Amino acid sequence: RGTPRKAGTHWTEPGCQSCTCQGGQVLCDIVSCSVPCSHPLPAPAGGCCPTCMGCLHEGVARAEGDVFSPSDGNCTVCVCLAGNVSCLSPECPPGSCPSPSSADCCSCNPEKCNFRGRMYAHGARFSLDGDDCTTCVCQGGEVECSFTPCPTLDCPQHQRHLGPGQCCSTCRDPPAPAGCFLDDNGVEFPVGQIWSPGDPCELCICQADGSVSCQRTDCVETCPYPIRIPGQCCPDCSAGCTYMGRIFSNNETFPSALDPCLSCICLVR
């Protein structure tokens, strides 16, 4: 690379390659790092190998000889020595602690509870004999009892029910609907009632579950000049004929409005 090197010279190229000038040739290989410590620091700027002049513990760089406590050590003390981290926990004598404190470094064995002739471990939860609605807990030699919490009900008071052997009330099923209530006009129809909602071609019925089912009427009978009766869905072909805005009865003869020489008659088809 334009730089003369003497035979036997060793140097490091970018990318952590170790090179040697040997017999007029340059021989290069990736630098092999020997790290004799458990928590080395990353390689310094321009270096290739981690260094043991300090420690990297839980993502935090520690200086040589630094004394610290880990985040979850609970009074554990650690020290950084030559890239190695050594931690020590305090030795605590066995004993009981009716009121354990989180600030204490030593762990303890909470007292058991003697309740109604039975022994319960610290933290044990149990129910009283014959009373499943009361829950008790052993805390440091003392027993605390309370009623079993009940869920919040979303039904009114008159629909709540407490069954035999139950601790909490439940909601009764709402009574079956007596009819169909229409919010738009405030009319309530009994079950089985049939009515038209305003369109003569649509009929609705009140179902037993309080729902409304509607269906449109299909007109089958057709004729060219039917009579349309107000309030009636289908046109009437048997009552006569409607022609040019006028109504004529069956078998009635009348002149054509388009040609006075033509005579028309209304026939049932």
First-residue to last-residue Cα separation: 111 Å
Shape: elongated
Quaternary state of this entry equals single chain
Q: What count of domains describes the coordinates?
A: 4
* Overall pLDDT level: 82
Q: What series of H and E elements makes up the topology?
A: EEEEEEEEEEEEEEEEEEEEEEEE
Name the strands of the widest sheet in spatial order.
1-2-3
Percentage of helical residues? under 10%
Pfam families: VWC, VWC2L_2nd
Domain VWFC: 1-53, 53-114, 111-172, 178-238
Keywords: Glycoprotein, Secreted, Signal
Subcellular location: Secreted
What distinguishing features does this structure have?
269 residues; mainly beta; three-stranded antiparallel sheet; VWCE protein; VWF_dom; glycoprotein; signal
Polypeptide structure, described:
The protein is built from no helices and 24 strands. The protein has 4 domains: 9-88, no CATH class; 113-146; 187-216, no CATH class; 224-268, no CATH class. The radius of gyration is 49 Å and the shape is elongated. It has strands at residues 10-13, 17-22, 25-30, 55-57, 60-62, 67-68, 77-81, 84-88, 113-115, 118-120, 125-128, 131-139, 142-147, 160-161, 170-171, 179-181, 188-190, 194-195, 202-206, 212-216, 241-243, 246-248, 253-255, 263-265. Helix content is 0%, strand content 35%. A 3-stranded antiparallel beta sheet has the order 1-2-3, with no helix packed on it. Strands 6-7-8 form a 3-stranded antiparallel beta sheet, with no helix packed on it. Strands 11-12-13 form a 3-stranded antiparallel beta sheet, with no helix packed on it. By secondary structure, it is mainly β. A hairpin with a 2-residue loop joins strand 11 (125-128) and strand 12. The protein starts with 9 loop residues before the first strand and ends with a strand. The mean pLDDT is 82.
